[in-house]
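FORM 7B: Structural annotation worksheet

SECTION A. Query
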Amino acid sequence: MLSLGNELTGSFVGDWVGEWNLGSVDRYETCSVQGQSGRPDLFVHNTDWFGIINGRHGLALQRIYYRWIHDYRHGRNW
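SECTION B. Predicted structure
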């Protein structure tokens, strides 16, 4: 991403991080699950997968789960 002072512009290129082939359907959220102060982790998710990526020593996939987390919008149907 590039900062133009009052806005950000960017582009996306899908690539592999660990076992995850990042693509345009993936969404990202910053978090601090295992990270040190000032070094946030990154949640990555789509409809089937959830993972945690960190960037302490390059990008590394820490955790990956396939349909592991319950979707609360569908009641108690685990």
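SECTION C. Observations
DSSP finds no helices and eight strands in the chain. The radius of gyration is 15 Å.

SECTION D. Sign-off
Analyst initials: ____
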